[in-house]
Amino acid sequence: MRIIGITGGVGAGKSFVLEYLERKYHAYVLYADQVANELKLPGRKCYEELRELLGSDVLAPDDTIDRAKMAAKIFADKELLMQVNAVVHPAVREYILEKIEEKRRQKDVKLFIIEAALLIEEHYDEICDELWYIYADVPVRAKRLAGSRGYSRERIDSIMGRQLSDEEFRKHCQTVIDNSRQAEETYIQIDEKLGAYLCQT
Known about the structure:
By secondary structure, the chain is of the alpha/beta class. It contains nine helices and five strands; from the N terminus they run βαβααααββαααβα.
Protein backbone atom coordinates (compact mmCIF):
# COMPACT_ATOMS: atom_id res chain seq x y z
CA MET A 1 0.00 0.00 0.00
CA ARG A 2 1.35 3.38 -1.02
CA ILE A 3 0.55 6.45 1.09
CA ILE A 4 0.29 9.71 -0.82
CA GLY A 5 -0.34 13.12 0.69
CA ILE A 6 -2.22 15.62 -1.47
CA THR A 7 -1.90 19.36 -0.97
CA GLY A 8 -2.12 22.62 -2.89
CA GLY A 9 -3.52 26.12 -2.77
CA VAL A 10 -7.21 26.97 -2.63
CA GLY A 11 -8.87 26.61 -6.03
CA ALA A 12 -6.13 24.35 -7.43
CA GLY A 13 -8.57 21.49 -7.89
CA LYS A 14 -7.57 19.00 -5.21
CA SER A 15 -11.12 17.63 -5.03
CA PHE A 16 -11.10 17.03 -8.78
CA VAL A 17 -7.86 15.02 -8.52
CA LEU A 18 -9.09 13.07 -5.50
CA GLU A 19 -12.35 12.15 -7.23
CA TYR A 20 -10.35 10.75 -10.16
CA LEU A 21 -8.08 8.75 -7.84
CA GLU A 22 -11.12 7.27 -6.11
CA ARG A 23 -12.98 6.52 -9.32
CA LYS A 24 -10.20 5.10 -11.49
CA TYR A 25 -7.75 3.71 -8.94
CA HIS A 26 -10.17 2.84 -6.11
CA ALA A 27 -7.97 4.83 -3.76
CA TYR A 28 -8.96 5.19 -0.12
CA VAL A 29 -9.11 8.94 0.50
CA LEU A 30 -8.97 10.34 4.02
CA TYR A 31 -9.84 14.02 4.44
CA ALA A 32 -8.06 15.44 7.50
CA ASP A 33 -10.60 18.27 7.90
CA GLN A 34 -13.47 15.76 8.05
CA VAL A 35 -11.59 13.74 10.66
CA ALA A 36 -11.02 16.89 12.72
CA ASN A 37 -14.73 17.77 12.59
CA GLU A 38 -15.69 14.26 13.70
CA LEU A 39 -13.24 14.36 16.62
CA LYS A 40 -14.85 17.60 17.83
CA LEU A 41 -18.27 15.97 18.22
CA PRO A 42 -19.70 15.19 21.69
CA GLY A 43 -18.22 11.98 23.04
CA ARG A 44 -15.24 12.05 20.70
CA LYS A 45 -11.59 12.57 21.56
CA CYS A 46 -11.30 16.37 21.34
CA TYR A 47 -14.74 17.51 22.50
CA GLU A 48 -14.33 17.99 26.24
CA GLU A 49 -10.93 19.66 26.01
CA LEU A 50 -12.13 22.04 23.31
CA ARG A 51 -15.28 22.84 25.24
CA GLU A 52 -13.15 23.77 28.24
CA LEU A 53 -10.80 25.89 26.12
CA LEU A 54 -13.45 27.69 24.09
CA GLY A 55 -16.25 28.10 26.61
CA SER A 56 -19.93 27.27 26.37
CA ASP A 57 -20.67 30.29 24.17
CA VAL A 58 -19.38 28.38 21.10
CA LEU A 59 -21.89 25.56 21.58
CA ALA A 60 -24.93 25.07 19.37
CA PRO A 61 -28.34 24.23 20.95
CA ASP A 62 -27.59 20.50 20.55
CA ASP A 63 -24.27 20.92 22.46
CA THR A 64 -22.13 20.40 19.37
CA ILE A 65 -19.37 22.93 18.76
CA ASP A 66 -20.62 25.58 16.33
CA ARG A 67 -17.86 25.76 13.71
CA ALA A 68 -18.58 29.36 12.73
CA LYS A 69 -18.51 30.56 16.34
CA MET A 70 -15.35 28.57 17.01
CA ALA A 71 -13.62 30.00 13.94
CA ALA A 72 -14.53 33.57 14.89
CA LYS A 73 -13.17 33.06 18.38
CA ILE A 74 -9.88 31.38 17.57
CA PHE A 75 -8.94 33.59 14.65
CA ALA A 76 -9.34 36.63 16.89
CA ASP A 77 -6.96 35.13 19.47
CA LYS A 78 -3.67 33.66 18.25
CA GLU A 79 -2.87 32.09 21.60
CA LEU A 80 -6.24 30.33 21.68
CA LEU A 81 -5.74 29.17 18.09
CA MET A 82 -2.43 27.59 19.05
CA GLN A 83 -4.04 25.86 22.04
CA VAL A 84 -6.88 24.48 19.90
CA ASN A 85 -4.43 23.28 17.25
CA ALA A 86 -2.38 21.56 19.96
CA VAL A 87 -5.49 19.55 20.86
CA VAL A 88 -6.84 18.81 17.37
CA HIS A 89 -3.78 18.20 15.20
CA PRO A 90 -2.19 15.40 17.29
CA ALA A 91 -5.60 13.68 17.58
CA VAL A 92 -6.09 13.82 13.81
CA ARG A 93 -2.60 12.45 13.23
CA GLU A 94 -3.24 9.59 15.69
CA TYR A 95 -6.52 8.75 13.92
CA ILE A 96 -4.79 8.72 10.53
CA LEU A 97 -2.01 6.44 11.76
CA GLU A 98 -4.59 4.03 13.18
CA LYS A 99 -6.50 4.04 9.87
CA ILE A 100 -3.29 3.36 7.93
CA GLU A 101 -2.56 0.34 10.11
CA GLU A 102 -6.13 -0.87 9.70
CA LYS A 103 -5.90 -0.68 5.91
CA ARG A 104 -2.53 -2.40 5.92
CA ARG A 105 -4.01 -5.28 7.88
CA GLN A 106 -7.05 -5.52 5.62
CA LYS A 107 -4.91 -5.37 2.46
CA ASP A 108 -7.89 -4.08 0.49
CA VAL A 109 -6.39 -0.90 -1.05
CA LYS A 110 -3.23 -0.12 -2.99
CA LEU A 111 -3.43 3.65 -2.59
CA PHE A 112 -4.07 5.44 0.68
CA ILE A 113 -4.52 9.17 0.08
CA ILE A 114 -4.36 11.86 2.77
CA GLU A 115 -5.78 15.27 1.93
CA ALA A 116 -4.84 17.95 4.46
CA ALA A 117 -4.64 21.72 4.29
CA LEU A 118 -1.58 21.71 6.57
CA LEU A 119 0.06 18.63 5.09
CA ILE A 120 3.49 20.25 4.97
CA GLU A 121 3.22 22.34 8.13
CA GLU A 122 2.14 19.32 10.18
CA HIS A 123 5.00 17.16 8.79
CA TYR A 124 2.89 14.54 7.06
CA ASP A 125 5.97 13.71 5.02
CA GLU A 126 6.88 11.57 8.05
CA ILE A 127 3.77 9.45 7.39
CA CYS A 128 3.48 9.52 3.59
CA ASP A 129 5.61 7.78 1.00
CA GLU A 130 5.38 10.92 -1.11
CA LEU A 131 3.65 14.29 -1.26
CA TRP A 132 1.83 15.60 -4.32
CA TYR A 133 1.36 19.29 -5.01
CA ILE A 134 -1.74 20.07 -7.06
CA TYR A 135 -0.84 23.23 -8.94
CA ALA A 136 -2.89 25.71 -10.93
CA ASP A 137 -2.08 29.22 -12.12
CA VAL A 138 -3.33 32.00 -9.83
CA PRO A 139 -5.73 33.47 -12.45
CA VAL A 140 -7.23 30.01 -13.01
CA ARG A 141 -7.67 29.47 -9.27
CA ALA A 142 -9.23 32.90 -8.82
CA LYS A 143 -11.69 32.28 -11.67
CA ARG A 144 -12.70 28.92 -10.19
CA LEU A 145 -13.26 30.39 -6.73
CA ALA A 146 -15.29 33.30 -8.06
CA GLY A 147 -17.41 30.95 -10.18
CA SER A 148 -17.93 27.99 -7.84
CA ARG A 149 -17.95 29.73 -4.46
CA GLY A 150 -18.84 33.29 -5.33
CA TYR A 151 -15.76 34.67 -3.59
CA SER A 152 -14.80 38.31 -4.11
CA ARG A 153 -11.34 39.17 -5.37
CA GLU A 154 -10.49 40.60 -1.96
CA ARG A 155 -11.44 37.38 -0.21
CA ILE A 156 -9.52 35.29 -2.74
CA ASP A 157 -6.38 37.41 -2.28
CA SER A 158 -6.74 37.18 1.51
CA ILE A 159 -7.03 33.37 1.50
CA MET A 160 -4.19 32.90 -0.97
CA GLY A 161 -2.01 35.26 1.03
CA ARG A 162 -2.29 33.04 4.11
CA GLN A 163 -1.25 29.88 2.28
CA LEU A 164 2.20 28.59 1.40
CA SER A 165 3.87 30.02 -1.68
CA ASP A 166 4.28 28.03 -4.88
CA GLU A 167 8.00 27.83 -4.10
CA GLU A 168 7.34 26.29 -0.66
CA PHE A 169 4.89 23.72 -2.04
CA ARG A 170 7.39 22.67 -4.72
CA LYS A 171 10.24 22.46 -2.21
CA HIS A 172 8.43 19.94 -0.02
CA CYS A 173 6.51 17.85 -2.58
CA GLN A 174 8.01 15.12 -4.75
CA THR A 175 5.34 15.30 -7.47
CA VAL A 176 3.66 18.29 -9.10
CA ILE A 177 0.37 17.78 -10.95
CA ASP A 178 -0.47 20.79 -13.13
CA ASN A 179 -4.23 21.15 -13.02
CA SER A 180 -4.40 24.48 -14.85
CA ARG A 181 -5.78 23.26 -18.16
CA GLN A 182 -8.04 20.53 -19.55
CA ALA A 183 -9.10 17.57 -17.40
CA GLU A 184 -7.54 15.11 -19.84
CA GLU A 185 -4.12 16.72 -19.33
CA THR A 186 -4.42 16.26 -15.58
CA TYR A 187 -5.53 12.64 -16.00
CA ILE A 188 -2.48 11.88 -18.19
CA GLN A 189 -0.10 13.23 -15.53
CA ILE A 190 -1.73 11.12 -12.81
CA ASP A 191 -1.79 8.00 -14.99
CA GLU A 192 1.87 8.39 -15.90
CA LYS A 193 2.80 8.84 -12.26
CA LEU A 194 0.80 5.88 -10.95
CA GLY A 195 1.09 3.49 -13.87
CA ALA A 196 4.59 2.22 -13.19
CA TYR A 197 3.99 1.88 -9.46
CA LEU A 198 0.70 0.00 -9.72
CA CYS A 199 2.14 -2.41 -12.28
CA GLN A 200 4.69 -3.45 -9.68
CA THR A 201 2.21 -4.09 -6.84
